[in-house]
Amino acid sequence: MKEIILLGASGSIGQQTIDVVKQHADQFKIVALSVGKRISVLKEILKEIKVDEVCVQNQKDALKLAKEYPNIHFSYGDNGLLHLVSLPKGDIVVNALLGFSGLMPTLKAIEHKKNIALANKETLVAGGQFVKEALKKYQVTLYPIDSEHSAIFQCLQGNSRSSVKRLIITASGGSFRDKTREELKDVTVKEALSHPNWSMGKKITIDSATMMNKGLEVLEAHWLFDLPFSKIDTIMHKESVIHSMVEFEDTAIMAQLGTPDMRLPIQYALTYPERLPLNGEYLDWSKFRELHFEPLSMERFPMLRLAYEVGEKGGNLPAIMNGANEAAVQLFLDEKIKFLEIEELVEKAVHNLEYQAHPTLEEVIDADQKARIYVNQLVEGESN
Length: 384
Description:
Elements lengths: L1 E6 L4 H12 L4 E7 L4 H10 L4 E4 L2 H10 L4 E4 H9 L6 E4 L7 H9 L3 E4 L3 H17 L3 E3 L2 H9 L8 E8 L17 H4 L9 H9 L1 H14 L6 E5 L5 E7 L4 E5 L5 H9 L30 H12 L3 H17 L5 H14 L8 H23 L1
Parallel strand pairs: 1-2, 1-5, 2-3, 3-4, 5-6, 6-7, 8-9
Antiparallel strand pairs: 8-10, 10-11
Helix pairs in contact: 4-5, 5-6, 6-10, 6-13, 9-13, 10-12, 12-14, 13-14, 13-15, 14-15
C-alpha cells in the first residue's frame, strides 16, 4: 500500500488524484491532505477519505474545523504545509499546489526523503537548481504530472538521454489560439476561461491563453530532463491528442498519445514503472481523421519568447517572471486589468527588477515577492 500526502486536494489535479486513488483503493491510500480556502469542498472530501492530518490556508478555518472534526489534527498556512510533508508517514507527495507556494513544501518533502509527484510547475521554474540539488542529496525521485512532461518521461523509457536530439512540447493554443492580437484587446475573463480541450483551474487556463503556460513548461523540461533550451521546442497541436514528443539522434520520433485526461499522468506518476487500468475514455480514432501542427509564433505569443530568454539567462529572472505573472493573472481575473496587460506587466518586471545571476534560495523567494509587489504597484499607480 503506497501512502500519499496530497497537497492541493480541492483543485482540479487534487480532485482527479482522489479519483485515481479511489479506483485503486487496494494500492493507494491518502494519509494527509491540504486545501486552501475551499472548506466546503474539504468537507465533501472528508466524507470519503479518512485522514488524521489536514492543512488549510487560514487559522480561523483550522480552529473551527478542529472542533467539528476532533479526530483530525488541523494545521494551517505555509507552516502547515511543511508540517504535512514532514510527517513520518507518506511514501510520495503529490504536489498540486497553485503557483510559487509549491516550492518550499517540495524541498521539505525531499529533505524527508519522500518521492515527489509534481503538478506544480512553478516549483521547478523558480527553484529548479535547488530542487535538483536536493533530489541528488537525499536520493529521492521526482515524477512529472504535467501531461507534456509525463509524455516526454514515458517516451524516454528504455532510451538514453544522450541520444535525444530535441524535445517537442505540444500546445493546444489556449482559448484565443485563432484570434489576432488586435482581437485580444477587449476579451473577457469568461472568454479566457473557456479552454477548447482541457478542464483546468483558472490560473493555468489563463496561462494557456497567454502561452505563459508553455513557457513555464519549457523551463520545467529544462530541469526535469537536463537539456539545454536549444533542444526544447514547442509546436501548436490543436487536437491535444499528442501530448509531447521526443526526437532522437537517429531521426526517430517517439510520441505519447491519448485523450486529454489528467488522470493518466497522475496515475503513471503514482504507479511507475507499472501501468494499471484506468476508468477513462479511450482514444476514438474515428474522431481524429487528421492531426494538425503549426509553428508557434514568438510575435503572436510574446510570453513564450520571454520564457526562453529568461530561461537562458537564469538566475533570479525565472522567479521574477513567475511571480509577476501570478500577480498579473490574478489582477486580470479580478477584472482590474485587460488581457494584454498581463504581458506588459510581466515584461516590465523582468526588465526592470534587479537581476542576480547566482541567487540563494532566500533571494529567489525575495525576487518572487518583489515581482508581485512591483506589478500590483504599477496597476495601483495607474488607477490613482
